[in-house]
Amino acid sequence: MEARQWVKQQFEAAGMEASLDGVGNVCGRYVPKPELEDVPAVLIASHLDSVPAGGMFDGTLGVMAGLECIRLIQENNITVNRPIEIIGTSEEEGRFGGMLGAQALSGNLTLEWLNTAKDPAGEYLKDALEQCGFSPQEALHARRDPADIRAFLELHIEQGPVLEMNNKPVGVVDGISGVFKWLIKLVGKPDHAGTAPMNMRSDAFMGVADFAHELSRIIDEEGSEYTRLTIGRVELKPGFAHTIPGEAHFTLVGRDMDNEVMHQVSMSCQKVLGAIARKHNLKFEYDQLSWIPPRHFSDDLVDTVEKNAQELALDYMRMPSGAGHDCQFFADLVPTALIFVKSVGGISHAPDEWSHWDDVQKGCDLLYKTLLDLCNE
Amino acid sequence: MEARQWVKQQFEAAGMEASLDGVGNVCGRYVPKPELEDVPAVLIASHLDSVPAGGMFDGTLGVMAGLECIRLIQENNITVNRPIEIIGTSEEEGRFGGMLGAQALSGNLTLEWLNTAKDPAGEYLKDALEQCGFSPQEALHARRDPADIRAFLELHIEQGPVLEMNNKPVGVVDGISGVFKWLIKLVGKPDHAGTAPMNMRSDAFMGVADFAHELSRIIDEEGSEYTRLTIGRVELKPGFAHTIPGEAHFTLVGRDMDNEVMHQVSMSCQKVLGAIARKHNLKFEYDQLSWIPPRHFSDDLVDTVEKNAQELALDYMRMPSGAGHDCQFFADLVPTALIFVKSVGGISHAPDEWSHWDDVQKGCDLLYKTLLDLCNE
Lengths: 377, 377
Hints:
The structure is a homodimer.
Chain A: H1 2-13, E1 17-20, E2 26-30, E3 41-47, H2 60-75, E4 84-89, H3 100-105, H4 111-116, H5 125-131, H6 136-140, E5 149-157, H7 162-165, E6 170-176, E7 178-187, H8 204-222, E8 228-230, E9 234-237, E10 247-256, H9 259-279, E11 283-292, E12 295-296, H10 299-311, E13 316-321, E14 336-341, H11 357-375
Parallel strand pairs in A: 3-4, 3-5, 5-14, 6-13
Antiparallel strand pairs in A: 1-2, 2-4, 6-12, 6-14, 7-10, 7-11, 8-10, 9-10
Helix pairs in contact in A: 2-11, 8-9, 10-11
């Protein structure tokens, strides 16, 4: 809340009307002339929070980039013919599921969810909101009418290694990967690691290992260059060195830019798991915890960003985002675009997170030029 | 301690001189005639404890089998020319490392270890001993002079599926597998599961999976029919579904009947781990927590047991033991033999543990006949 108050002051100092909405999004509104008040605005938004022990660029950079655009416009007396709103969203990495601020803005929240959502420690979201002076009712009022929005722009660090590997300072993002998350359970028999011969075992871990071994083949056969399959969590039972694992519970997270490819990949995973379970004499079940389809940004606006990158003579690449971002909730509502700035070493969510200021400036120039295009079309 | 007191009473009721030694081994000594007091004795021993929520056969069966031999000798006025001692050992499955009673008897303990050993909860062995009325000093006095022992016999359930799969009621065990235990650490990079392309990852779990996948090949190329390799515990860091595992810590337990084979298998594991670490761009280190060479029982006594199985027309098989047993500490000191009784379903360390009484009787007949051979040679 202290950071939000500070950002609010910066917005006010830059001549914007600033306020906190019902979920703590800090909104700074710049209206060039009173008669433009009701013209659909351009929103520039990213988040102010990051993970605990994270870095200084994740999220915040996009809010500061928006603020800098307003300062540039004012310092140079640039004519703009629309309201511009800079928003520092809340709880993007949040403990209540994440993306709270952006979901409130896009109208994705329900009163029931707001009243019942809990963090992993059991604290209710509604109590946390009230401690900050908000309420579930007010949270619902944070929703913006898409008719009032000309476009939604976000600038964010890449948080991955693709720009660096391709030696590009900025990325023109044309969509966000879909993602599915499974919890898979393999059940065998927890025998003594000494007495059970290798060919009489039902070793649940060998099932996980064989499955992991097939992931690259599944991607080669069913996936695309954007497919990602990750086993991030594995729990073995009983988990003793001298006992054959009788149960293995593990997560599988799959991503792609194409919903059909996601389906093909997930079906192949299912078949492979079935075959491996039979081979190792295991029972197998899985629970699909979530399935979020990919989002593709509107070509018009992405093309505009790309044209501007060319006009600015930036060394850029058009690319999808493997990670989720605030803007994804607006992709189906209004023209939406996302600009990536290169992350050194692809590192993020860590104090080592860094983007060179040169590259940051290139991203900001691209954001600014696109903003002016939208304001003066 | 209650169970031990009860067993002591049974020993006394069967005409034995009974006592608890300094680590809680219950010893019942049968001396047929006073002048035989100093003749080397035959020891029949197994353990009285099992794991929490274990079964009723593991260990205890061997102690009761010994008691039954003494009863048979007395009820039928059988002449024996040696002392016979039945021992119910303590802490075979113990929380201080296990095999406490047998190690005390065979002289494997040191005062330093007895004074410093702790269980996983931090309780000192010496405090636990004192709560039961024992002490580290007394524990050292439990040692038996091998010169006083003619032979060490143990009867135990198999705790595995081999006898059942081969449809044999009893096994004549000729040795106990050696075992090595490694703690292996693979260190990669904990990237975002969405932003890091598959070919730019250093996924520590993929290293474990690839290694597990090679285990059967390693056994085929370097191992024997008695080789076992087991990954029983795996811990991933950070262990989040959406993060590529940056570290994997896992155990590898290897067994074989031949120390040279164990060395070949372990060297192959090392090479394969090195190659996999290079392939996945991981750092790799391992810590050898223990290396216990295989024990082979003296052929003479094992041959005697086998001859007796034939004379009793038992359907038996000669086999090694994959699990450790009390008798292993005597294998290098005195003639030692181990008789297995078939475990239904190979199940042990669970309430379902069961051996058919018919099979138990066959094992006891074999033990008794071997005991008489040793007493009247």
